[in-house]
Amino acid sequence: MDTKILFCDVAECSYNGEQKCHATAIKVGHPHSSCELSHPMCDTYLLSREKLNMSGKSGVGVCEEDCCSYNEMLKCTASGVSIGSHHTHADCRTFKKR
């Protein structure tokens, strides 16, 4: 897990603390996506009033977004990613379509 989560503005996520992700590893995207969406979801997003106090570094554990230019065999090759709010879920804002 080399790709760090640089920023997350999804304040209502249980893993968010001071705009930093505290999940050990996140999962982004869906396998076999339609490639027409420009906002692959952070599937680790967890809506809860409780904040989870996790220590350590967070990063992208797996990326299943086939259309992202940073995806190489389910691994994110971006130097870092930003996660942001999109309607009722969280998205990877670093996504770059192939």
Q: What does this 3D model show about the protein?
A:
The chain is mainly β. It has one domain (1-98). 0% of the residues lie in helices and 32% in strands. The chain contains no helices and 9 strands. It has strands spanning 4-8, 16-17, 20-21, 26-28, 60-63, 71-72, 75-76, 80-86, 89-92. It has a 3-stranded mixed sheet with strand order 1-8-9, with no helix packed on it. It has a two-stranded antiparallel ribbon with strand order 2-3. The radius of gyration is 12 Å and the shape is globular. The two termini are 22 Å apart. 34% of the residues are buried. The model has no long low-confidence stretch (mean pLDDT 87).
The overall strand count is 9
- Tell me the fraction of residues in β-strands, as a range: 25-35%
Shape: globular
Runs in which pLDDT lies below 50 for 5 or more consecutive residues are none
Based on CA atoms alone, the radius of gyration comes out at 12 Å
Percent in helix: under 10%
End-to-end separation? 22 Å
Structural class: mainly beta
Main sheet: strand order? 1-8-9
Number of helices: 0
